[in-house]
Amino acid sequence: MRLLVAGDDEVDAGKTTFTAGLVERTGVRGFKPRAGNGYWYDHDDYRRAVETGRLYGTDAKRLAAVSPGDVRPESINPVHRLWLPTPGRGKGLLGREGRAFLVDRVTDDDGTGHVVNGTVELPASAREGLPLADAATVESLPELNELMARRHAPALEALAARIDRRGAAVVESYADIARPLSEFVPDAVAVVGPRRCRIYDGRRYARACDVTGNSPHEGQLEERVADVVDLLEPVADLTLPALSGEERADSAAVADEYGTAYEELLAAV
After folding, report:
1. Which one of 43, 116, 122, 129 is least enclosed by Cβ atoms within 10 Å?
2. How many CA atoms lie within 13 A of 188 on its CB side?
3. What does the alpha-carbon distance between residue 66 and residue 80 come to, in Å, rounded to a whole number?
4. How confident is the prediction for the chain on average, in pLDDT?
């Protein structure tokens, strides 16, 4: 049973809340292949990680905590990107208005490495807290794309192979990207957004990902959720109940409140 959770909004779609509850409900390990957070907007989370010489976000941390067994965030999240707001400086190396990537953390079977954006100045806490002595530095988009092909892609492929061997997994995408692993074919898909959850057959969803037009995102071409679901009819279209902050933080409470949506998702497998 391989389940995919994607979001219909780039920010605050509710993917991780939904995914954490689903992991709680099924007892299956959760994965967040790609993730990112901000030096400014997520500063507390950033500091907690960097002070231990690591780089990960709250999404991977939460999925690792709710998954069965002793799971480190990096083991379920091989690629993490740290962002910095850059107001008034135009488009950065990745063409994103008002923000620039600072550091990528890439983890594979051989360990963890980092990629640094050489066009911006790293905060002192990142320079001092992260093991960047052997980090690769990029100063152009072609350089980054070439390096992502050599380092990021193999790390993601290795994770995809691990998921395939496990047979059972809950995979959360990032932003509004339709799937975080290019060859991943889920059994069923939940596309979530504020108050809404749409369920799709996994194989049809994967085929729609293959045929839809790709769009540039963070240095590579990927399918966006809106383009993919435009080609499909959902198996089910449900309204999600609003949750308090306390309920959202409690995966067992989420599993209870979103129970109907989870039942529909599992029925689509």
Report:
1. 43
2. 19
3. 19
4. 92
Q: How far apart are CA 188 and CA 183, in angstroms?
A: 15
d(CA 266, CA 16): 18
pLDDT of residue 219: 44
| Distance in angstroms (rounded) separating the CA atoms of residues 1 and 189 | 11
3-class secondary structure, 99: strand
Closest to 173 (Cα-Cα) out of 2, 6, 1: 6
CB-based contacts of 204, cutoff 8 Å, min separation 6? 232
Q: How far is CA 220 from CA 75, 85, 152, in A?
A: 23, 21, 11
| CA gap 98, 208 in Å, rounded | 32
Structural tokens at position 130 = 């992260």
Angstrom distance (rounded) from CA 88 to CA 223 = 29
Q: Answer whether 117's CB lies under 8 Å from 93's CB.
A: yes
- Mean pLDDT per 10-residue run, the chain (269 residues)? 91 90 98 96 96 96 97 97 85 76 95 95 96 96 93 95 94 94 94 96 95 57 88 97 96 97 98
Task: Tell me what pLDDT residue 99 has.
Answer: 86
CA-based R_g, the chain, Å: 18
**Which ranges constitute the DSSP H helices of the chain?**
15-26, 43-50, 58-66, 73-76, 124-129, 141-147, 153-166, 202-211, 225-229, 245-248, 251-257, 259-267
Is 108 in a helix, a strand, or coil?
strand
